[in-house]
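Changelog-linked ticket: phosphoric acid mono(formamide)ester example.
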Amino acid sequence: MKKYTNTSDITSLANLVDEAIALKKNPFAFESLGKHKTLVMLFFNPSLRTRLSTQKAAQNLGMEVMIMNISHDGWVLEFEDGSIMNNASSEHVKEAAQVVSQYCDILAIRAFAGLTNKEEDYNEKVINAFVQYATVPVVSLESATGHPLQALADAITLAENKVKQKPKVVLSWAPHPKALPHAVANSFVEIMQLQDVDFVITHPKGYELDTKITEGVMIEYDQKKAFENADFIYTKNWSTFNDYGKVQSQDKNWMITQQKMQGTNNAKFMHCLPVRRNVVVEDAVIDDKNSLVIEQAKNRTFAAQIVLKRILENSNSPLKRA
Ligand code: CP
């Protein structure tokens, strides 16, 4: 693996999931692979799970880790080519990415969508600039439009918990007071399309995701109908895509409740966290034995570890070094 900024960097999801599950059983099996190698993580936005699980993953492989909250502690970066930098930005990403690359072997970046400029977000201005100018492999810790490490952890969790060959998986929108990015939903849709599942998305009208991502996926606007026979309910809020970045609905009737879960096939509940209790999901659902949210968070370590391992193996290969 040369980089991991999108689910399209996965060549075989089944192999990646199987190997991640093997790593989970024996996390220190490759503790020498990352010796004298460094992971730098740059955070433009807050994190709990991504930061700690990726650090743990790197440490399990014997890597050193350096972390910077770049939006608080770094210079304001410029991303435009040819700009006259007489305003807020002090350093161009061209230099920053090359400089940081000299301090590490893998560079991981978290940079959320701004949700004001659709073109800029969907062109992945920040992470693509780092991919362009860094001289080491780049990993996404959630970008403007995707969260591929979360999606891989979700695929691992699904593989570990499914009891039939082709489970029904429902991605359900739920209300939230703030406008949230599409990243988690987009990557979940993409990774569901890489496996044998009966996949349905349910959301209020107006909350359609990018049709380039949802092409061929069943959309059911009636949440109750979508939940029928579901084996997994994956819940996430996202803001509108077409009328970009808006909160058009806070309809409490879309919250995930115990009563709605009773209309499923004893479905497992999934959410990437953090989650607003009793806004997105009722306490009774998230605290139930069918809730997988803590397992999902645990699998973030092994999703990150398999990705870092594959990148290290690629960088270490004799062909690459030659
Ligand atoms: N799910 C997830 O990415 O969590 P954090 O934002 O806490 O990293």
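Closing comment: Example verified and attached. The longest helix spans residues 293-316. The chain has a mean pLDDT of 97.
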